[in-house]
Amino acid sequence: MSQYILALDQGTTSSRAILFDRVGALIGTAQHEFTQIFPAGKQGWVEHDPFEILTSQMSAAVEVLGRAGVRPRDVAAIGITNQRETAIVWDRETGRPVYNAVVWQDRRTADACAELVKSGAEDDVRRRTGLRLDPYFSGTKVAWILDNISGARERAERGELAFGTVDSWLIWNLTSGKRHITDRTNASRTLLYNIVEDRWDDELLRLLRVPRSMMPEVVWSSEALGPVSTTLGLEGVEIAGIAGDQQSALFGQMCTRPGDAKNTYGTGCFLLQHMGSTFRQSEHRLLTTLACSVDRKLEYALEGSVFIGGAVVQWLRDGLGIIDSSSDVEALALSVPDSGGVMFVPAFTGMGAPHWDPYASGMMIGIGRGTTKAHIARAAVDSIALQTADLMRAMNADTPAPLRELRVDGGAAANNMLMQFQADLLSVPVHRPACLETTAMGAAFLAGLAVGFWPNTDEIQRKQDAGTVFQPQHDYSALDARWQEAIARAKGWNR
Ligand code: G3P
After folding, report:
1. Which of 110, 120, 145, 348 has the CA that lies 20 to 30 A from 335?
2. Does the structure's ipTM exceed the value 0.95?
């Protein structure tokens, strides 16, 4: 009998493969970073090579199986979770992408979105999709590709091109082009899916000028979808779970009842709260999105999305070179008592919730002769928690009951200083599970439930570990006024 579930976690900066056994224990993990493409002279553009996404993901999968001595036939199912909103357009015949993947962080369609807002389209878009007209989402990125790559629009009109987020691209390749699908959680991030009526929305497709024929079939997050049929190393294994990474983490934390919430500290920070089965629009500049469902009924979540979270630490490493590895940031930041008055707004790719300004810029203010790299590191870590506090305030204003605790996960949640500061800022306990791989766990659970590897969610609930709780200790509420002032100054700079 197959003993394992394999989760493929295709994130913004790396592709990871994680193997779980029947008790939900992590057996092995492999991670391959891939190239971030920032086209020269193009402020705010971010691209990935779709083939590098595919090969980095497959090599991570092959590596994790090889290291654990597990054969494909020992794997009961594969669950896929992915960076969301990133748009790929490819030729159905040749399988070749017509352009690089335009990444969720990419701001190139900011003006197009501003025009649509000016035309008065936003209220209707929000009513149908729960989203805002922001370059973050896939729809305007697809239109950009069709408008800017020679012949692409004509080919798309003739039905020759396919669109997909990263899940679709991976599955299309893993099934040798047999399945062009996406799940509801990913579809809900495109600006093209009506999350109230559960369908691609022809009026939105018309508004954003995306031909219907390009769209993938929409499936449930937990369902047997067919075997891998390529010779890439996973032949015959059933693909049985798909979810956007943030909804996957929500499920991986077993936040399945209304009011359950988690914050993931990955490239960005994403606070999601389960809302149950009733669609409701945010009144405080958050998003409504589809959550994972295992019983084939629509479930919704309220989401606050911050674009730069853990990525600010990567920038300290790769951009400034003041740390050698991301884990060094905690010691450097702790070497000073505070940021010495430095405020760091990491709006490298504009601002997401609750400010929504694609023209905002990264900014540091409060620098003096005494400022050291330690103060900058401290201000960078502070910024992750301060942005999350903005999200939580908006979320508490949007929901009947304020959050009484925050569950956390993602790479940067390993930083104890950040977690303590987060608890202090929010004045609620911060609960960190022992295994931070909840995004991958979510995809594994979805796949395992679909093929009967686990009988039901109660069984999974029992596997959740205790973890660590950070209790609020200090009052940092005075910091907030300075933070809001810094945010206001960073807005609009790139207009
Ligand atoms: O919406 C963007 C999100 O899916 C990216 O996630 O984990 O790559 O930061 P991550």
Report:
1. 348
2. yes
